[in-house]
Amino acid sequence: MKISIITEGNKETGLGHLTRCISLYQAFEERNIIPKIYLNGDSTAFPFLEDINHEFIDWLNNQDELFKKIKNSDAIIVDSYLAPKEFYETISRSTLIPLYLDDNVRLDYPLGIILNGAINAESLPYKKTLSNEYLLGTKYLPIRKEFWEIVDRPLRLDIQNILLTFGGTDKLNLTTRILRLLTRNHPTLKKRIIVTNSFDHISQIEEAKDANTEIINTPSASELLKIMYETDLAICAGGQTLNELARVGIPSIAIAVADNQKSQLAGWVKEKFLQQELTFDLPNLEHRLLLLISNLRKKQVREPISKIGKQKIDGNGAKRVLQFIIDKHVGKSGFYFRNAIAKDATIIFNLSNDRLVRANSINTEPIKWGDHLDWFSGKLLDDNCYFLLAFTPSNQFIGQVRFDINGYYADINISIDKDFRGKGYSKQLIFSASYKLFHDKPNINFINAIIRPNNTPSIKAFTNAGYKLVGKEIINEQEFLLFQLKK
């Protein structure tokens, strides 16, 4: 599967969209499907992109270039506050599976899947047209993989530390404002402050801190999770971090810093995870914060709040979205393809050394592990090798189809795992993989298949897939049949 993810992440827009998209990326990656993120971003995003297949591109102003890059994508995911409706309409025409992340019914979206994982998103006024499918509510909330599995943490009788986190930029400088409030009124509490290099007011934050303040610059997701485990109370914005706090069960006070965060706060208040809806411009905000902190010091108040957050977000949202896309892609065929990657060395080695596979190969000798690794790594680096693995929707390995390209034609090699032989997969894999090759590699005019004369199942499968017997080949003094499929 070719998965393209389009989003933004910079000092102006913040990084919430990027972290959501990374969580979807990680769900695909867990199934060894490697998407590519096309990011309209700046250096603010650098710390989040380690080991992520990505490309920086101002796709809003270079749409023609983007659409060339995402051509032939099996699914295209868009998470943006900036993209106009016309952009989504082009995406809808460019793939069979378009998916749009939305927060507040921003647009009348064209044909595609609309994903809104916010709390109580089911109650938002989507039109629910027949041309769209909807994944709504925290069941489908994508959060980063570090938050998929959590451990229970005991609550202290009284709060001892507070976490302040206001996103990747904090353009409103709420961090300084609230830190000053805390140092004046709660000097004995330990205060952990999350900042990034994109903050414009770090010097002011430094001036506002006291002896019990720790400033942490751009923690990784795993580092942030550790900080959350040690946190009694968080004060945060109303974006993606609020959902991660809820997942860990951290009682929180959230402040909406943009209009699109207000509905999320309203939903969490309705579910009683938050006690109040707050906005950055609310009169007497500091006074309200002090009252909330005072009330949340009590363990009997924080305990049900913690349980609500963990109950509402189970951490499996990104995996559910992935499975929905895979099921939609598979349809009635019962399988999907993905490109071979280095992690597949063992599974291909075992399949290649299967007794029946070796007996029907040109070279019938068993393959040594060292020789296999050299061969396999070479194939992965070879631009003229088109190497596909087939899986069921539940991630069971069916087999492999490999094409070795020689100019305007390709040689096909296929082998099926023993658990899936005799079930009709050979014909389907040959037909689908051959069509995919012609589609993705338009310079290929025909495909050759070399088959042993006594391999009746393969002859039948290739014939049923449209291949024609065109002659014979002598290889290593042995006779083989040559089948061919023309475009």
UniProtKB/TrEMBL annotation:
Sample GO molecular function, one term: hydrolase activity
Residue ranges of domain N-acetyltransferase in the record: 346-487
Entry keywords, A to Z: Hydrolase
Hydrolase is among the record's keywords: yes
Pfam family, one: Acetyltransf_3
Full protein name: Bifunctional UDP-2,4-diacetamido-2,4,6-trideoxy-beta-L-altropyranose hydrolase/GNAT family N-acetyltransferase
Organism: Stygiobacter electus
Lineage: Bacteria, Pseudomonadati, Ignavibacteriota, Ignavibacteria, Ignavibacteriales
